[in-house]
Design a protein that fits this description.
heterodimer; A: about 110 residues; mainly beta; four-stranded antiparallel β-sheet; 12 strands; B: about 110 residues; seven-stranded mixed β-sheet
Chain lengths: ~110, ~110
């Protein structure tokens, strides 16, 4: 079946540091890939997505590129802010899993001033 | 921007009691979902619903669980006889009918079974 693996957390950075959160997946077929963000006390919000190989999703300064050859979808941001502190979830949909989303473990990001 | 809304935000119940978690999906969406997140664990798929019937369910979604769309706006998850291990955050989600449309999530209902 489908699965998503995220880098172990939590991650603590200083403001303006570079962020990378690794995500790799296992799936058959051609899944769509997503990053969701969960701010404290809130639900899951779609951050960005990519639907085919080599697509780059981007939003709010965050980027991730769908790499089929390495089955990865790493999240990056060049300069993080305190307001980026949240839990980030990598997810995939499609392949053998139909329309359901399969989530990674989530990575807690804390950005200090 | 349209939102998925869930009520209540927090529900406390005793073991063995029935609970109904309520969701109002985005109005023109066609696919509806329930997910749960046990504290400190992954977000897990429970069930998807389309065209007034369950389209997919996970092994977690056993006979204790049921879903219903009683009218044109609400989407409910019922747990018939709650167990301690049902304590979790339950998220409702919906999406449009177009391919690759993303899921939109509500803020969740925290269920505590005592």
């Amino acid at each position: 079946g489908n699965s998503v693996t995220q880098m172990e957390g939590p991650v603590t950075l200083s403001e303006e540091a570079f962020l990378t959160i690794n995500c790799t997946y296992t799936a058959t077929g051609y899944p769509s890939l997503f990053w969701y963000v969960q701010y404290p006390g809130e639900g899951l919000q779609l951050l960005l997505k990519a639907t085919k190989a080599d697509d780059k999703g981007s939003n709010k300064g965050f980027e991730a590129t769908y790499r089929k050859e390495t089955t990865s979808f790493h999240l990056e941001k060049g300069s993080v802010q305190v307001s980026d502190s949240a839990v980030y979830f990598c997810a995939l949909r499609g392949g053998t899993s139909g329309s359901r989303l399969t989530f990674g473990e989530g990575t807690q990001l804390t950005v200090n001033p | 921007e349209p939102e998925v809304t869930q009520t209540p935000s927090h529900q406390v119940t005793q073991m063995g009691q029935e609970v109904i978690l309520r969701c109002v999906p985005i109005s023109n969406h066609l696919y509806f979902y329930w997910y749960r997140q046990i504290l400190g664990q992954k977000v897990e798929f429970l069930v998807s619903f389309y065209n007034n019937e369950i389209s997919e369910k996970s092994e977690i979604f056993d006979d204790q669980f049921s879903v219903e769309r009683p009218d044109g706006s609400n989407f409910t998850l019922k747990i018939r006889s709650t167990k301690l291990e049902d304590s979790a955050m339950y998220f409702c989600a919906s999406r449009a009918g177009t391919p690759y449309s993303p899921l939109h999530f509500g803020n969740g209902t925290r269920l505590t079974v005592t």
